[in-house]
Amino acid sequence: MSSYTLWLLSPNRRARVRQLAAATGASVVAAWIVDAAVDAGFLGGVFVQELFHPSAPELWMRAVVATLLVLLFVRTQDRARLQLLTAALAEAPDGVQVVDVQGRVCYSNAAVQALYGYGPEELRGRHVDLMNADPHFAERIILPALQRAGRWAGELDVRHKDGHVFPVWLATALVPGGLGRPPAAIGIIRDISERKRTEEELRGYAHRLEDANQLKELFADILRHDLLGPVSTVRLALDLLDKEEHAPRSQQLVARARRGCAQLTEMIDSAALYAKVSAAREIALEQLDLGAVLAEVVAQSEPFAEARRGRIAYQGRGAGYLTRAHPLIADVFANLISNAVKYGPDQGTVAVGVEDAGDRWHVSVADRGEGVPDADKPRLFNRFERLGKAGVKGTGLGLAIAKRIVEMHGGGIAVEDNPGGGAVFRVSLPKG
């Protein structure tokens, strides 16, 4: 050790090494090796005391022995760590495999052996191309990725010893070489046969569900057509009877029959519409102005309100509320306004408003009726649920249809108590 190198040591260590060298007549290098071994804790007890004894002979030889002991200790520790790592890999639930640069297997744990059906020594030296269903997969896909990014992960099909092919998930990374060792690739392998079977079953279920939904929609159209045919015949007959003179009692019966036809038509249309919207996964949206839609719905609903000597107060602009929606959204507002008129008092006012809520529009329809009890609110939007005012006719599908249409727009619908009495229905729609 040169004087320059000696000065790289701390002052205390420099003094200790010089003292040891002077006391034993050994070289500074020998003294430094022994001192380093003692400082690292690799030498101790009587042997250390003898090394530092002023009369210790052959300090250089003892320094060499100390160095060998240090190397042996480090190697023993490395071997223990290696044994621990090997045991952990051997018992790992996923397959672990090491492949050299030629693509030949260097190591496979028990999980890999069970995966492919080979014995412990049958895989060693075997080329991975012989185990892949596509013998060129590694060359085309994996190797370029390892050269480019040092890692690759994905699905591939492999071949079992008995010949059957099955899918696995492989995550592999390049391990650089060093100290004369060539680089290698280590891979984690997992059998995904069960997952692929589950995915295929889910796809089958989805296809069957889609077919069932299309059949349901077709059936709804056919049912609507077939049911409305006889209703139209009855309505036509009633129109002919209206043109003739009848006793007051007969006129009452004709009027009652006409109301029944109208109610039956509404039920058929509602059932057909509910079947369609409940079967649909999504709907085509277009740019609409909620202001224009609401103004049109209010105008169409006003005669109904006027028949009960009421009115509809639209508290919003006629334009300027742009959103992406389907024309069916008008049916939602028409249903809410119709319900507000029906369930509200005679000569009542239905308030319709629009509020800007950041990335959404909030449309409200408020009445002054009896309101909705808290216990009934959770099931109000279920189909065939009709709550509240006696004598009000309806199908029990209107709010269920409204909820489905709003949800298909990515929105929400809810009912709250109106502070002044009655109920407030709120529809939230994305601005799009």
UniProtKB/TrEMBL annotation:
It catalyses: ATP + protein L-histidine = ADP + protein N-phospho-L-histidine. It comes from the Bacteria. Residues 81-134 form the PAS domain. Residues 222-432 form the Histidine kinase domain. Its main location: membrane. One of its GO terms (biological process) is osmosensory signaling via phosphorelay pathway. Keywords: ATP-binding, Kinase, Membrane, Nucleotide-binding, Phosphoprotein, Transferase, Transmembrane, Transmembrane helix, Two-component regulatory system. PROSITE patterns: HIS_KIN, PAC, PAS. Its EC number is 2.7.13.3. Gene3D superfamilies: 1.10.287.130, Histidine kinase-like ATPase, C-terminal domain (3.30.565.10), PAS domain (3.30.450.20). One of its GO terms (molecular function) is protein kinase activator activity. GO terms for cellular component: membrane. It is a multi-pass membrane protein. Residues 152-204 form the PAC domain. It is found in: Membrane. NCBIfam families: sensory_box. This is histidine kinase. It comes from Anaeromyxobacter diazotrophicus.
